[in-house]
Hints:
The chain contains 26 helices and 19 strands. Helix 3 crosses helix 7 (149-184). It is flat. It folds into four domains: 38-184, no CATH class; 272-316 and 327-372, Threonyl-tRNA Synthetase, Chain A, domain 2, CATH 3.30.980; 426-644, 3-Layer(aba) Sandwich (Rossmann fold), CATH 3.40.50; 660-742, Winged helix-like DNA-binding domain superfamily/Winged helix DNA-binding domain (Arc Repressor Mutant, subunit A). The termini are far apart. The protein is an alpha+beta fold. Strand 7 and strand 8 form a beta hairpin. The protein has a nine-stranded mixed beta sheet with strand order 10-9-17-16-15-11-14-13-12. It has a four-stranded antiparallel beta sheet with strand order 3-4-8-7. The chain is 46% helix and 13% strand.
Amino acid sequence: MARSQPPAEKPPRKGNTRKPGNPPEETGPVSWDERLADEILNRRREIGGVFFLLFAGVSLLALFDLSQASLLQWWTRLLRQIFGWGAIVICLAMAVLGLRLIAGTLWGRIQVEPTRVAGAGILVIIAMGLAHLVGGYSLVDAVAGRGGGLVGWALAEPLFDFFGPFLTILIYLALLGWAMMLLTGRTLADIQSGLMTASRRLSSWADQVDPDRVDVVGRSEYHPPPATVAPPSAPALQLPPDEADGFSDTRRRDPRLPSIDLLERGETLTQARDEIAWKSKRIEDTLFDFGLPAKVVEVRRGPTVTQFGVEPGYVERPGPDGEMKQQKVRVGQIAALQRDLTLALAVSRLRIEAPVPGRNVVGIEVPNGQASVVRLRGLIESPAFARLNSPLSVGLGRNVAGDPVVADLGKLPHLLIAGTTGSGKSVCINAFISCLVFNNTPEQLKLVMVDPKKVELVRFNGLPHLIGNVEVDADRAVGVLRWLTSEMDRRYELFESVSARNISIYNHKHSAAAKAHLRLPYIAVFIDELADLMHMYPGDVERNLCRLAQMARATGIHLIVATQRPSTDVITGLIKANFPARLSFAVASGTDSRVILDTVGAEHLLGKGDMLFQSPDAGAPDRVQGVYVTDTEIERVVAHWRAATPNHAPEPPPWEPLIARYALLDETDSLLESAVELAKKHDNLSVSFLQRRLRLGYPRAARLMEHLHEMGLVDDPQTGGKTRRSFVNEDDEDPIGDYLSDS
């Protein structure tokens, strides 16, 4: 910006009406108010500049909650609602305007090019739109002043809905380039010239460093490395890093929540171009040898496997009239060569997806020479996780393209997991639990855990989110399921009292501070081994699981059930029908794969977190490399919550009375509750009366009467008769519970 020289002569005041060359008119004495008006008129630029500076300063103080003035709060609330985080830029622009007015008076006017101002304005507009788009905010968030406010929502949401994420990003990049050209005064020709100059300098520098460099070796000269050895360091294609996707979850977090630094970053591995080229040519040559011409048209590199997209070619076959015609290679013919391709590529296992859903290719998934570890931190920082914007978001892993795969338990709403021993089930459950407690406070989420193996989930004991402790006894697990069913019924009664359809509406109606204690937390139930429970209590477990899976979604109760034996006696048809979301790790046979996924493919997985995820709204399962959470990360998260809640003491689990109640019924008689109800309604009881009303034989009715007497609910037989007086009435809600609490 160029600065002009101050004028040599001061221009005449606006209030002076004398023309040059004419003698001054005779005027009377000037009053003090006229002199004040002339002085304010002459110094209007300085006064305006000071006003803008002061107003910008107090507005910035109010934006950062450093001022409590009601008028300023109204002004800043309006700024935040309209511009979001851009309100700070608006205040800074007012301050710059004030400085320009003052500087123009002191040193002359500062010349500003209109194109540079336009470039700066476009940059601010792009920033507000990107803040809304990247942060995954909704209209409610925009009204609350998050992201780019209403302006950011209006700029980002229509583009995202109409063009989709890819074209929207391209539009913003184009606007960004245009704004930078306006701001810097550069043209496309200048940018092209600069890039060509930089390219020539890099080329000359490379020749000086390595004048004898050679090209990459041809496809046919490559030999696959052993599985334990990293591929050669030839020009490499970098896999997507696990810890960074260019976005981060910028939502406002509770200060008690753990820091992202507690989680470890992922490692970035490389995949050599010559290995990709050799495998591509090997696939094409093998298919051609069997008379199936095809071409590898795309390569998707994941953490564990690389998917080669094969486009079937054409073969000449005689038609009905004897003439040779071009016919497309059938997809089933390529899928039938799975074992031959496994032999040709010298790999342990190979999976063919014929065809890949949504694309006109056949996917041949080949294991990488060296697998990369998928970390939880990379998924939490991914834009896909931020876009879910749900308290029940969990990270599953990364697919064959390296993209993050996340899910919302509220939409699944339950998950069934199966896999052999050592395939990664327990690690997956640990990742789910870590993800949930990482993003939810104990008031927002409660956990219920059942671990018959007694070694996998006990490390979470002490979490304030946990109801009671991890249950390791299969006998008590049935009581846990019964309590969950009763808790579901209780919540439905609460919803009915306030006319709420689900837990979200119920909590919204109790969002005020006076009713905050009435809010209901979500409950996530983790069962690590279903087969053991189904073996001991098949009827009770199946009945309660199915009832929860059918009705518990609206009450905020979600089930994650795992088993290592996906057989029909464990995963029954009724259980399977109520768990639409399923996740399968490596299984022993195609039969097991059909039981859990209704299709084959899980028997070809590699293990160690390699899985197939069947979403309720997807037509085919998606291959995912699961998240790996170390014991150190789990200990850090648990230690954080223990330190954040020093006064937390585990309360007795609420299912203890139910367990004691059913234990009493098992020891005595299942009709004891019915006998107690009769005692509440009648003043006198007898054995013959129990026989008639409960349709029992004399011995069983006599034993029931003795149990009632031992519990103190009936008197001894009256003298000379068999009638007993009842000590309870209809006002007594739960005599059995009172008896258990007293004993």
